[in-house]
Amino acid sequence: MLVASRRGRYSSGQETRLLLVETAERLFAMRGYHPVTLADVRAAAGQNNASVVRYYFGSKEGLLTAILDHRLPRISAYRGELIREWVAVGATFTARDALWCLVEPLADSVRRGEYYVALLDRLLEAEIIGKTFIAADPGGTASGFEIDRVLHGVIADIPEDTRKQRVIMVYTSVLGTLAQYARTGAELAPTELPALVDAWEGLLCAPTSEETRETRALAGR
User: Fold this and answer.
1) Relative to the CA of 26, which of 82, 93, 118, 159 has its CA 20 to 30 Å away?
2) Backbone φ, ψ for residue 191 (5° rounding)
3) How far apart, in Å, do the first and last CA atoms of the chain sit?
4) Residue closest to 120 by CA, chosen among 68, 73, 58
5) Cα–Cα distance between 125 and 221 in angstroms, integer?
6) What is the structure's pLDDT at 160?
């Protein structure tokens, strides 16, 4: 009887923890990270204990890390699987392939009704996304670093500052676009994603204009 009671408390505790994680994910995604307080999370989760969030996570930063720990493993595993499929067939890993490996796991999360992508978009706005991922499990971000390496590599022939700018613009557009689907609940139709990848590929690989080359030359860059 005592063992069963302990198991029941453990199960209840895990359910409460998950409820808080998913509630915080939704609130951060909809309203932004900084405006949302731990009291907001507790109230939205229907919890009466004023210290319940600190009990499970210690702090707001700990709660944010818990959200990543909850979502990242599946998304990273999916991305890693897509990368391995390309490697297995010996195909050249193009910019479009890398973009699909970046985008498809995020789109899958949106289709599941999760707010993770919209959360990342808010963290990007708050300029704390890098700090957040540093605190996450390195194993969970390995496939993301591989995609980043490929995206930089396919445009290695353009100046470094322009290359970094384009990759950042792609990430910003991917998160911002998919976040809108997550926040509004709009359906992400199968025909839409290839067209979006077209746009992101064009953004990444756009040819450098003569005007840009002349401007850089005049600036000594």
Assistant:
1) 82
2) -75, -20
3) 75
4) 68
5) 29
6) 92
